[in-house]
Amino acid sequence: NERLCFYLFVHELGHCRDNQERQELEEAALIREGLFKVRQVAQYCGNILMGEFAACVHSANAVTHKAHEELVTMWHNDVKNILRAIREEKAVYQANNEYLFNLAFASAQLFWAILIGYAKLIGNQTGNPSLGNMLPPPWAANKTIENILVGLASELRALWSEYPHWPSSSVERLRPYWQRLALAYGYKFDEHSEEKSGDALWLQASD
After folding, report:
1. Per the confidence metrics, is the pTM higher than 0.90?
2. 50, 19, 14, 21: which is closest to 128 by C-alpha?
3. pLDDT tens for residues 53-72?
4. pLDDT one-digit tens code per residue, 84-132
5. Are the C-beta atoms of 188 and 104 separated by less than 8 Å?
């Protein structure tokens, strides 16, 4: 619709402004071949999250209340699809454990994708106070997940107070929320201290 089309156009301009403000932005590559590395996935996806958050803050004045409600609904639907995709990857692995790398690589990114979508909504609220301070409700009545989202929102607003001075290490401030979200669904990612060793994914019992 027209509301969302206009916002999406202004959002892209928000990316342009962010690129101008953060000219020393470091780009991280995501390499599928080789060892599975949590830090590599986090740096790549975390950079995307921060870029989307900044662009949303810059373009937030183009978001009407109705458009924001629609964006929240779209995110809820995206989350359902993402969780379904994770379950499907897990089912493939359970049928053939040779696909553990695929599950680790895919699920790590997909849990980040949930937080990236949420960060965009928080960016809209941060840049456009008229949208209110109420956080979009979580997609399930789960207090653990709600606390994760509330914590992420607070961290992002704290980061915004330091903008545009975001060193690459800023991603490390976001990674605990990703780790906790994954763990809430029974996915525990462990880093190995040895550079030549791949990182581990442990599957735990979950509801």
Report:
1. yes
2. 14
3. 999 999 999 999 999 999 99
4. 999 999 999 999 999 999 999 999 999 999 999 999 999 999 999 999 8
5. no
